[in-house]
Amino acid sequence: MIRQLLRRQAPLAPLGVAANAGAAALILVIATRRGDFADIGGFTAGASAGAFAAAGLSGGTSLSYVTGSREQRATIRRLRSTWVPMLLLLAGVALTLAYAATTELPVWAVAMGALSVCFTNMSELRSNDLQREEQILRLHACTVGAKIVAVLATWVASIDFSTAMTLAAALTYLLLRVLKRGEREQRGNTVRGIEGLRLAYDPHLIGVSIASILSLRLPFLVAPYVMTPVQTGAFATLLSTQQYVNTFLTTGLYTVMAIRAKNRANAQLEPRMARLERAYLAGSFAVCFVLLLAGPAILGVLGFDSKAETTLWAVLIVIAIPAHTLNRAAQYRFHASQDGSSALRVLSWITGIALGLSFAALIFDAPLAVALIPLVSEALVAPIVYCWARSMHPPRSNGRT
Fold first, then answer.
1. Where is the signal peptide (predicted)?
2. Is 69 in a helix, a strand, or coil?
């Protein structure tokens, strides 16, 4: 029965994410061909700052929700549906005012970026429920459907990129809410007070959540301070495109983690999970190769000119994909085995390198240092993670027992 579910559902995860990323990329293409780079830069800066606030307030509860007990999930669900959304809205207002005072980014775009994070954060637990239940098709029907509506609004009504992405996030939340309301919610005993906070917030996962956001979002946060709004938007377009690809690959790994966590006692499941994991890792190299070959055509579709600076940024960003996938595979394997400290160690190394490059970019006013953050931070850590994983899980002999 489990194998049948895996055949039907697990392979659908990357396909659904590919459709979702493709719809988001269409919105991006329409916006870039109109020259809305400043709006794109403002949205990504606001969304990145909002995501950092969400990581601090949610504190890794999304991972606990996937891997924890029913009682833990019930407690997290109560916390995430009450005070976390209100605090996120207040943080969004504060971040918008801060960017308005310190940069030249469009204020509306920054505000829309922060607001989209609020909707995304409220959607997370419902999305995780569907992943745990292996209802991948229903999950991506909601997310892709919302993105398609946003694509049509961008194309037909000519709304800007920031408004379209916020519309997609809001529609995704509403669709998931309606879908889960139509089913019986999984119940559990809710723990309140200090004990509830201790149950919901794991210190290791708080660190993992913040480090993960910083490792992905630092370039977006730093770029407005060393680049013009148009340059910021151009760089954000390239890095967002790469992160759509990363999401396609790592969502499959995340689904493998969720299934491993749910079926820890089933040793017969592990060989299939390992094969899926290796397939995603091999796919990251293939995707990187294809993107490098198709790079000039992709830049043309996105409306970029043939500046050497833009081409260099694109190459540096693309060749970071395999290292990123390898590091996330190790991180999710640690989470599935409830080894949060090892997962935090991996992300801490990546974040430490990214922070060092960010400070260098700010001190020397160097846009190239910002473009190097994804590649250098991931590539320096990947060999260490690979050797570490090999030492913890040595390869099996070819002989059969």
1. none
2. coil
